[in-house]
Write a structure and sequence with these properties.
Elements (H helix, E strand, L loop, with lengths): L2 E5 L4 H12 L3 E6 L15 E4 L5 H8 L4 E5 L8 H12 L5 E7 L12 H16 L5 H13 L3 E7 L2 E2 L8 E3 L12 E2 H11 L11 E3 L4 H4 L7
Parallel strand pairs: 1-2, 1-4, 2-3, 4-5, 5-6, 7-9
Antiparallel strand pairs: 8-10
Helix pairs in contact: 1-6, 2-3, 3-5
The structure holds NADP nicotinamide-adenine-dinucleotide phosphate (NAP).
C-alpha cells in the first residue's frame, strides 16, 4: 500500500496519524476544513492537503482517488449530521477494495453486547442531552455514521477509543471485542497510540469487519490480562 488519505486530518488524532503514516513510508493526502489548513504547516511539504468539509462528496472523491487506504476521524461536533455525511462520502467514494479505518468512541456498539459502567452511561446521557440542546454536538450522529459503516460491504474497521490522554507513545494498544471485557477496564489510551492503532490497522486484514475497543498496552488492566488477546 502506497497512498493513503486521512479525512479529518487537522485534529490531534489526525496529525498523529500523519506522523505515523509518513514514518511508514506512505504517501499522505489529508482533508480538513479550510480554516484549519494552517494546523498542518509542519507537514505541508511532505503531504498533499485537500481543503474542504469532510462531508462534501466532491472534496472526498478527489482526495481518496488512487488511495488504497482511508483513515477517517468521525466526530460528533455540530448538529448537521457531519459524521454521518463524512462516513457516507468515504464509503461511496473510496476505491473498490480500499482499506477503510474509522475512529469513534466506546459509546458506539456494534452488536449491543457492550457492558458500560453506570458512570459512563450517566455521562453520555447528560452530555448527549446538553450538547444537543445547545447545538454543540450530536452523539447519535456518530452512532448513525458507524451503523452505516457496519452495514457496508467495504473492507472496514471501526476503532473504538477509550478515554484519551496525551503523552509519549507506550506502544500499540491492546483491544477486545466488547466494552466491559476485563482487559479494557483501565479505560485509558494515549492519543498518539490510538493513531498508531489506526495506521497499523491498514495492514492488518484480521481487523476487517471488526470494531475493536482499545486500551493502552501499559495500563493496569492490559498488563493484568491472563488470556491471549483476539
Ligand atoms: N477526546 C476523547 O477523549 C475521545 C475518547 C474516545 C474516542 N475519541 C475519538 O477520537 C477521535 C478524535 O477525537 P479527538 O477528541 O482526539 O479530536 P481531534 O483529533 O482533535 O479532532 C477533532 C476533529 O473535529 C473537527 N471539528 C472540530 N469542530 C468541528 C465542527 N464544529 N464541525 C466539524 N468538525 C469539527 C476538527 O477539525 P478542525 O481541525 O477543522 O477544527 C478535527 O478534525 C474521534 O473519533 C473521537 O470520537 C475521542
Amino acid at each position: 500500500m502506497k497512498r493513503v488519505c486521512i479525512v479529518g486530518v487537522s485534529g490531534k488524532l489526525g496529525r498523529h496519524m500523519v506522523r505515523h503514516a509518513l514514518e511508514r513510508g506512505y504517501e499522505v493526502v489529508g482533508v480538513c476544513r479550510e480554516q484549519s489548513v494552517g494546523k498542518l504547516d509542519p507537514f505541508k511539504d511532505r503531504m498533499t492537503i485537500v481543503p474542504g468539509r469532510t462531508n462534501d462528496r466532491g472534496t472526498i472523491r478527489s482526495a481518496v482517488a488512487g488511495c488504497e487506504g482511508v483513515l477517517t476521524v468521525l466526530v460528533p461536533w455540530g448538529v448537521q449530521q457531519y459524521a454521518t455525511g463524512t462516513a457516507e462520502a468515504v464509503l461511496d467514494s473510496a476505491s473498490p477494495g480500499a482499506r477503510l479505518v474509522f475512529s469513534c468512541g466506546w459509546h458506539v456498539s456494534r452488536d449491543g453486547r457492550d457492558v458500560y459502567p453506570w458512570r459512563f452511561r450517566a455521562f453520555l446521557r447528560v452530555f448527549g442531552w446538553l450538547a444537543r440542546v445547545v447545538r454543540f454536538a450530536d452523539i447519535d450522529d456518530q452512532v448513525e455514521a458507524c451503523r452505516r459503516v457496519f452495514a457496508s460491504d467495504t473492507r472496514w474497521t471501526v476503532v473504538r477509543g477509550s478515554d484519551l490522554e496525551e503523552g509519549e507513545s507506550q506502544g500499540l494498544p491492546v483491544w477486545s471485542h466488547h466494552v466491559g471485557d476485563p482487559v479494557l477496564r483501565s479505560n485509558r489510551t494515549r492519543r498518539v497510540d490510538f493513531a498508531l492503532f489506526m495506521v497499523e490497522a491498514l495492514g492488518n486484514d484480521g481487523l476487517i469487519h471488526e470494531a475493536p475497543a482499545i486500551v493502552g498496552c501499559q495500563t493496569r488492566s492490559a498488563l493484568a490480562r491472563e488470556s491471549p488477546l483476539p
